[in-house]
Every structure is written in C-alpha cells, then in structure tokens.
C-alpha cells in the first residue's frame, strides 16, 4: 500500500510538472529572446516572494500576500526551464536556486510570525511561537538532508517536505482570510510544526541507521591509529 501511494504521488507530480511546463514555456522562451538570464529570474522571483510575505502578511492582508507570492513562485519553474532550454544549467545555478528558495520560505513563515505578533492583526503569542517553530524545523529539515548528503548518506522523504509545507500554508492561508476562518490557518500551522519535527526525527534516524549499518565508514575522516612497526629480528651474535 505504501508503495502504491508513493507511486500515485510521483505520477501526480509528473502530471503537474507537465501541465505547468506547457504553460511556462512561452514565457521562458520570450525571456530568453529578451536576453534575460535564468539567474535574474531566480533573484527577481525571490525578491517578489519576500516582498509579498513581509509587506502584506504582517498587516493581516493574507489573501493579497498569497496572490503576490504565488505569482512569483512560478519563477522557480521558469528559471529551471530557461536554464535547460538555453543549456546554461550549472552547479552555480542549482546552488543559487536552492539557497534563495530557503530565503523565500523563511520570508513566508517569518511574515506569518509577524502577523501573529501584531496586536492589530493575528494577535496571538502562542501562534507566533508555533509558526516560528514551524519555520525553524522546516529549515532544519532541509539542513538535515544537505548535511547527510555531504557525508555521502541519504536523508530525504518524511511527512513534510518543502513543497508540502509551502503549498499547504499558502492555500490554507488564502482561504482562511477570504472565508474569515482564522482557525484554518492555525490548524495547518500546528500540523506543519508537528509534521516538520517528525520529519527531522525520521531523517535523523535514517542517517543513524545507515551509519550503524556500515561501521567501517562511520568515522569523520579520522586517520587510522598508527600501528607499531614489526620488531626487527635479533641478529646480534649471542656468543660474544
């Protein structure tokens, strides 16, 4: 059953990517003709996401912030398509994209922290703390994977991956504001905080299991202990 669920999820994501690839292709091609680079699109998209989250969320304009953020989130698809189409995919582009993605995620959850900290908006110290915890654990989830991979291990999967967190908080945040049902956003933030914590634990246990399964490579570049050279044979004449 788990395998089937994983297969269905992958198939759904592939269909989602195929649909949006058809939508963004004309935009990406136009930007390339205008001489715009994929890195510029990545940077502009991140600035737009951060602006949408940090300008509108703290003031309680959640639905408007989500609309602005959503418009710029698609830059994450456009820049990748541009890089592949133009043949400019590189390690630098991948690094820049991943790094700025984390900055955008931090702005989204940070904006919600400020929303709940604002006495004229969310006005909830408890929810500000829960949202901050969701932000910290989301960042830790990404770091756990990156650190594991730097050690030659794997730490992917779990209850709450980056795409899951972002889609959930944006979609529910929008309807929470439009329908005037703040409880919806509160529920999803509690769920993300818990799910992200469980994901970090899952990834940590996975890494530990891999290390215990291969004790020969468990050391962190630790040089082997020096061994004593074999004793030289005694060639001294004992008849002296």
Question: What attributes does this structure have?
Answer:
Four Helix Bundle (Hemerythrin (Met), subunit A); mainly alpha; metal-binding; magnesium ion binding; lipid metabolism; disordered C terminus; single chain; 240 residues; flat; CDP-OH_PTrfase_TM_dom; transmembrane helix
What does this structure look like?
It is found in: Cell membrane. A CDP-1,2-diacyl-sn-glycerol binds at residues 39-42, 80, 84, 90. The chain is mainly alpha-helical and 240 residues long. It has one domain (7-214): CDP-alcohol phosphotransferase transmembrane (TM) domain (Four Helix Bundle (Hemerythrin (Met), subunit A)). Helices cover 74% and strands 0% of the residues. The chain is built from eight helices and no strands. It has helices at residues 2-33, 38-56, 62-73, 75-86, 91-117, 125-150, 162-178, 182-213.
């Amino acid at each position: 059953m788990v395998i089937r669920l994983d297969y269905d999820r992958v198939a759904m994501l592939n269909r989602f990517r195929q649909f949006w690839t058809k939508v963004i292709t004309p935009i990406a091609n136009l930007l390339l003709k205008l001489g715009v680079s994929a890195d510029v699109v990545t940077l502009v998209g991140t600035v737009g996401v951060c602006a949408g989250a940090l300008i509108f969320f703290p003031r309680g304009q959640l639905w408007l912030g989500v609309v602005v953020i959503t418009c710029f989130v698609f830059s994450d698809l456009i820049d990748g398509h541009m890089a592949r189409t133009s043949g400019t995919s590189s390690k630098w582009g991948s690094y820049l994209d991943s790094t700025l993605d984390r900055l955008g995620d931090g702005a989204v959850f940070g904006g919600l922290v400020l929303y709940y900290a604002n006495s004229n908006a969310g006005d909830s110290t408890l929810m500000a703390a829960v949202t901050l915890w969701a932000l910290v654990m989301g960042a830790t989830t990404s770091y756990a994977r990156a650190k594991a991979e730097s050690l030659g291990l794997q730490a992917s999967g779990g209850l709450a991956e980056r795409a899951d967190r972002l889609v959930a908080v944006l979609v529910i945040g929008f309807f929470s504001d439009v329908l005037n049902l703040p409880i919806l956003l509160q529920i999803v933030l509690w769920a993300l905080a818990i799910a992200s914590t469980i994901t970090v634990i899952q990834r940590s246990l996975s890494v530990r299991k891999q290390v215990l399964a291969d004790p020969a490579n468990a050391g962190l570049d630790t040089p082997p202990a020096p061994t004593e050279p074999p004793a030289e044979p005694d060639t001294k004449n004992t008849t002296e």
